[in-house]
Amino acid sequence: MFNLFKNKNHEKENLDKLLAKSDDFKCIEYFNNKTNVSFTLKFLATLVDSKTIQESVLPYLLEENFKQIEDAKQIIPLADIQLSEDISQIEDKLFTGSVLLTVSGKENKFCFLGARKEIGRNVSLPEVEFSVIGPKESFVESLDQNLNLIRKRVPVKELIMEKLTVGTLSKTKVAILYIDGITNPENVNTVRQRIEDIEFDEITDSSYIVQIISDNQNSPFPQLLDTERPDRISAILAEGKVAIFVDGSPHALIGPTTLVEFFSSFEDYYLNWILSSFFRLIRLFAVVFSILVTPVYVATLSYHYELIPIDLMNTLVASRRAIPFPPILEALFLELTIELLREAGARLPTKVGQTIGIVGGIVIGTASVQAGLTSNILLIFIALAALASFTTPVYRIGNTIRLLRFPFLLFAEVWGLLGIVVCFCFLLTHLIRLTSLGRPYLEPLYPPRMQDLKDAFIRLSFDKQRKRPFLLNTKQPNRFHKKAAKYKKDIEDE
After folding, report:
1. Is residue 254 within 8 Å of 229, Cβ to Cβ?
2. Positions in the chain whose pLDDT score sits under 50
3. Cβ(180)–Cβ(188) under 8 Å?
4. In this structure, what DSSP letter does residue 134 have?
5. Are 188 and 241 in contact (CB under 8 A)?
6. 48 — phi, psi (to 5°)?
7. CA distance linking residue 447 with residue 431, whole number of Å
8. Peptide bond before 256: cis, by omega within 30 degrees of 0?
9. Could you tell me what percent of the chain has a pLDDT over 90?
10. Whole-angstrom Cα distance, residue 276 to residue 447?
């Protein structure tokens, strides 16, 4: 027992020596004249709110009847006060904004006083998922503030929040949210286990979590949906999904998810179901158009020019008469130019980036046509394809769409339209095999589930969405009673 106590004291001394190398570590000794007790406060000044120490800690320790460490809970008006004898907790508590209180002569007992300094920005407008209709709140980098936004929208005792810590260096807090009694426990266990098994030193954003816990880390398709909107998280929790929050990240993760969800904007639910279904179909068409228009152009001009009508053929021949390059090089030149402009606009400051994108596109496009490097018809197709790719409401899937055009272009150059079909078969095979937290990624197309088509390519009215998604296998499949949704009380029934 003596050796154990000696080892603990030695461990504490080593910790004090290491912390003393940092200028923001403070170790200050005070004396209570009333009780003749000497005590010490240790804390990191950059993590602790000095106002809390000066107003809510020191006056009570110096002026009240403070004799032993146990009295701290009685005299200090703070909610977060913990007594402990476990030296291993000191490092974690100090680096999470606590003040270490010890009494001279009894250093084996100590008290942690919660005085964390909160530095963060206010809730602002969504920048990535902006909507004209609906709430104008978005998540911030503070985990507690983000959880507050969800608790306000789902004020029920069944909303469960579990906190985990990941990252051997960063010690990042990760929160798992789900509704008990609705969410399938298998999905919750899968998320919990994968996060607990993370072996990485630095986790600074939810993007790290997406890549590490995804079912297939080598797939360009995102297998967890990320969002910055609290209203979207509240809605998916009610459906029976699991939400993941990472301290320091303004984006939350949703799982399990499907491919179709990446093309649905949450503003769809604030519009009439006919309008939202129309806009959703436009987005899906735009994605297909963005991927295939350039490969079809290359395949048609290289192998299948007999499919082009005579009148259109004359226009194509006239536009390509002075161009020395084959269609594949012409298409790759313009595609890479668009990507360069897009990257330049994204990395530069907002106002400068918009100017570079507009002016650069006009100048380079006009100059390349006049110089005879590209045809004006392909330039129109490339511009329409780039415009169509911007209709995707989720940024991550937009990057995937940008990437997919290039393998389709190469297959079109090698085998023409047959190459496009072969590439599509490879893509479809990959999507069929892909899963999100063990659930099929291509649902409700594969496996075919008619029940979930009500909110896939089109969105039916709310009275038709009585059941939760079959994909989630929730413990409570019904969202409301069918009769209650059908019957509308008339004024004469009052």
Report:
1. no
2. 1-6
3. no
4. S
5. no
6. -110, 145
7. 12
8. yes
9. 36
10. 25
